[in-house]
Amino acid sequence: MNVRAKILMIVVLMTGFGWGGEPIDIRTLAYTDEMHIVAIDVGANPTNMPNAMLWDLPILLLYKQVDNFNAIDVDLLRAELTDDFVNGRYKPVVIRTKKDQDLTLNYMNLIGLGNAPQRLVQGVVCKNCSSKRAYSFSYGAEGDRSKFPWLTSIHAHGISYTIDNDGTRAGMNLTANAANDGLVAPGESRSYYYKQLDLPGVWPLHDHGNPSHTVSRGLHMALVVEGEEKVAPDHDFLMLFSDYPTYDDYLDEFYTQTFVPPFIHMRNANVMHAHALNGYAAMLPPRMNMAVAGGNTPWDAMRTDVLSNPRTPVYEVELGALVRMRLLSFGSATTHSFHLHGHAWWDKATSTYQDNAAVPAGSSYEIMFWAGGPPFRQFRFFNNYWDADEGSEPANKIPVRSGTGDWLYHCHIIPHVKHGMWGVFRVTEPGAGE
């Protein structure tokens, strides 16, 4: 490896290039009827772009589960969450409940408190600014430089609740009763109460104080309401689709109310226009560069033996395992989709087999299949897929169609793959990991 390649290797590894997000398996989550959640801002790079290519670290806004609100050390909490995010341990908050039970979400807004991250952009940043003008964008002590105060909330989809638990300010609700205010100021807290969750499914939860700014920066999570379980899969994965904003949005009307010339963002055109899975984006341009620097080709950018795992989840399951994937999209401006190589599933809505599922923003979708095998369809047997000599029946009863291997999954809106929305679904031989 030449000197240039070694330097690039060090730079990329320092940015967390080699760490991927952990899969979310719903089966590992305990049922709950009450949870304490905070919103907090962290400075962290959700992509595998080298930090040196950024003007400053992005300011992410994230929900985090805590034990309680007693004596919270904001800076310590922010440091812990930042460390988890940088090192691939971050998972979006997922709340698992049961149909017909009550749920209480105790919420505290910590955005801007303590040693909050700030953004400094120097140079010509607007049409009427002098060349020496600089803006500092902050959610804390310098928040008066921003147009809006950072009031946030939790807004739930699908389930039943009264207007005072909607997490919004809208219409005549506050005139009718001041207690109908669903927003929470920094440093304050409130509880959202949902009585008798009536509809099973996977539902979005997100901020509705200033959602056009906050949801795409990370203020979203998932609510899983379990109904009667008819099938018990071996794995029950949840995947969240989201979009980090373009770099332009850090300098939009929320801050300056001024025009920002496009040339300001040319250097960062591929930096923050990221499409993420479970909070991480495995952007292809730096992986292509890294492959070339290591003596390979740009076409080797998705190889994990050459470059290590992507930042997106790597799913490792045994051949024949029954897998359920629950997909939830927070796409800010577009529909996403899920395509898994070598696999297909039965689509109940269309009564057809599919291998690509569209998931519009705010929607969820569920699929089920055998890993390396055929689609799962109740009341149907797939003898034609048994991995055995013709005319014989295998003793292990493992359904095989595509078999083992590292199967690529990705959004089939192809530009979204470039900007990070892909990963690896690894099917291994039974007992291979023992």
- Gyration radius, rounded: 23 Å
Work out the helix count: 7
Unreliable spans are 1-18, 121-140, 143-148, 247-271, 379-395
CATH topology of one domain: Immunoglobulin-like
* Assembly annotation: single chain
What is the CATH domain class of one domain?
Answer: Mainly Beta
> How much β-strand is present in the residues?
25-35%
What is the N-to-C succession of helices and strands? HEEEHEEEEEHEEHEEEHHEEEEEEEEHE
The number of strands is 22
CATH H-level superfamily title of one domain: Cupredoxins -  blue copper proteins
Given helix and strand content, the structural type is alpha+beta
Query: What is the CATH architecture assignment of one domain?
Result: Sandwich
Average per-residue pLDDT, rounded, comes to 81
Globally, the shape reads globular
| Helix content, binned percent | 10-25%
Reported for the largest beta sheet, the result is: 5 strands, mixed
How far apart are the termini? 34 Å
Give me the secondary-structure topology.
Blueprint: H1 3-14, E1 24-25, E2 34-43, E3 59-66, H2 74-86, E4 94-98, E5 103-109, E6 118-122, E7 134-138, E8 155-156, H3 173-176, E9 189-194, E10 201-206, H4 211-214, E11 220-226, E12 235-244, E13 274-277, H5 284-293, H6 304-307, E14 314-318, E15 322-329, E16 336-340, E17 345-347, E18 352-354, E19 356-359, E20 364-370, E21 405-410, H7 414-418, E22 422-428
Helix pairs in contact: 1-5
